[in-house]
Amino acid sequence: MFQINENYLQLGESYLFSTIARKVEQFSASHPGVDIIRLGIGDVTLPISPVVISALHRSVDEMGVKEHFRGYGPEQGYAFLREAIAEIDFQKRGIGISPAEIFVSDGSKSDTGNIGDILGEGNVVAITDPVYPVYLDTTLMRIGKTDKIRLLCCSEENGFLPELPQERVDIVYLCYPNNPTGTVMTREQLTWWVDWALENESLILFDAAYEAFIRDESIPRSIYEIEGARGCAIEFRSFSKSAGFTGLRCSYTVVPHELRVATANGVEVSLHHLWNRRQSTKFNGTPYVIQRAAEAVYSPQGQQEMQAMIDSYMQNAALIRQGLSESGFTFFGGEHSPYIWLKCPDGLDSWQFFDRLLEVCHVVGTPGAGFGSSGEGYFRLTAFNNAERTAEAIGRIAQLSSTR
Amino acid sequence: MFQINENYLQLGESYLFSTIARKVEQFSASHPGVDIIRLGIGDVTLPISPVVISALHRSVDEMGVKEHFRGYGPEQGYAFLREAIAEIDFQKRGIGISPAEIFVSDGSKSDTGNIGDILGEGNVVAITDPVYPVYLDTTLMRIGKTDKIRLLCCSEENGFLPELPQERVDIVYLCYPNNPTGTVMTREQLTWWVDWALENESLILFDAAYEAFIRDESIPRSIYEIEGARGCAIEFRSFSKSAGFTGLRCSYTVVPHELRVATANGVEVSLHHLWNRRQSTKFNGTPYVIQRAAEAVYSPQGQQEMQAMIDSYMQNAALIRQGLSESGFTFFGGEHSPYIWLKCPDGLDSWQFFDRLLEVCHVVGTPGAGFGSSGEGYFRLTAFNNAERTAEAIGRIAQLSSTR
Known about the structure:
With 404 residues, chain A is an alpha/beta fold. Chain A has helices at residues 16-30, 50-63, 79-90, 108-114, 133-143, 187-200, 271-282, 288-297, 300-326, 350-361, 387-403; strands spanning 37-38, 102-105, 125-129, 149-153, 171-175, 203-207, 233-238, 251-254, 260-262, 268-270, 331-333, 339-343, 363-364, 366-367, 378-382. In chain A, strand 5, helix 6 and strand 6 (203-207) form a beta-alpha-beta unit.
């Protein structure tokens, strides 16, 4: 009989969001008419901005006309988009990334999941805890439950920033601004990681999906702002949260030409070459119309519209921060991130606090324990609902704290 | 130092299309003003049909309005599309496939490449030769150059239909109508394969990307027309060639619920469950607007427009067949496929015939040797150019044969 990849059997089933849905459904059924507000949502809610909608309509029209129709595009993405990305996201900020180093794709979930295809199974892999579950699950799918996975605890004690590994680590996933904790890394802290990776000949997989939410220019938005990072890091970027593309699907990954590794036989290999081979063989490019939409984000109007969208979410984050602060909660994030990570009050664990918030305030959030064992005792709120609902939810949480 | 997946180093670099491009470029440079016709193209050329364009515009407008905006969709695809696929492509043809068994994705190249993620590395894998290179390359990426890969020779002698393996094979890739040979499998022949797979507890990966080109109802368009196939086959389908979606990117994969396998420990596992876990973890769905476009293909007008497109390409195929026949070529395919596979005349090998066709006729095709060693001595022409240019090219090839 043919065999399956049995590593899949070692994966925990992800019950987090289905458990939340079931609990909310049960509560609604037994409390009909109750107005429930969702601050657990990790998806954007504002519509696609006007200049992007226009670009979509224009390119759709092109596809209907023989003279302008486009079939297969380059697997790496069209030059018009790769050039806009290189110029606006990097070169204008003084970061030397060329269009050829950029691979356009359909989502950071795909790219952070697929990157393992080109990496060896013998690597020791470090993953922060709590964490976006894709890094851990896709590593388990590939190498199974081995002694090669290290969880780097992120807690209040270390400011939710992992300490540099004391033992050998070949690959580390870092995500800053962080999901779920909402925390950021300063330039100094990120420099420690780059220096560590260069010294140890390790690889950093840097997920910068939330960089657009950074409000302080002193905090690095790209790992390539740090000297030497071109020789030790791959960076993942997304249009999902910055321009509301969660339903349009576009992202990109940067693999610098300097990123080279010696094989067991001493042959020097370029990771750019390997990723290009992977993408050319297992991917056929992002839809033309979606790439035109992403290009429009880089127009002057597109940049303004994107900023307005981010400002709107960050006003919600400020509302949440202010409300939690006035109610005496301990919390983190929400300054350069749409996520606020609060410490559950009264010694409650993550799910106990979830239940109390649902039952007393009719507000839904996400239990921190769902992101890893170090998330126990914490709770994630997001800034993706609208201002009115966010304010209402925070008002209810304030009452909770005043009555306890 | 961190390690790479060294299987990548064992891959042959794919020089086929770059070599073709270089040769054409050199010829053009030394023969300025010469009118070169391309019949090597594997991409569609007709624009997206009107009802699909309308669906795109409508859904783009929805994305710009708060009340209708859609963020993350289900990783498996929206119900509206899965239901249309199940009804029109299967149930109306008497094939019992349910919407829940369908996984919408961004391309068959992705799915045929990624399917290996859920399969064990110990499987013996059989691949036809000549072949669409993705099956072999992605197998090599995963398990390396081992004695576990069997090439099934497809030649004039066996009618380009592989013989049933005489030794143990766990997984076989079959593509019918075939790329590159343009040949099809009869119901009887496909039944042999399904019976073989059931008897041997093997898995068939059936690529039906060209099923829409079948003109004869007696030839199976889906492997699930064969009794028992739900227990031994995964089927890949694409909108690329049927509805011209090569630049829009949409396809789907069918994983029936009956497809189950016992692990080494005797645990029974559903492949549907594994593929769902893979797609939920490493993919975030096909863009909403693209899924609405695919849905429109299933409307009565969409079906008519698709058929007109296919008819147009098949008229080109008929032109090519007639011309080659009158010129005394031996050739295959082109009846239920946009591909015509011709035997190089005068004992020429694939590249020699390529050169002669370019130099004498100014026509570009694809050397069969580029699809595997059993393709040596053959040549692929495609029906994707327009009628006028196709007729002109065939006229030139006729002169070549009359002067030889």
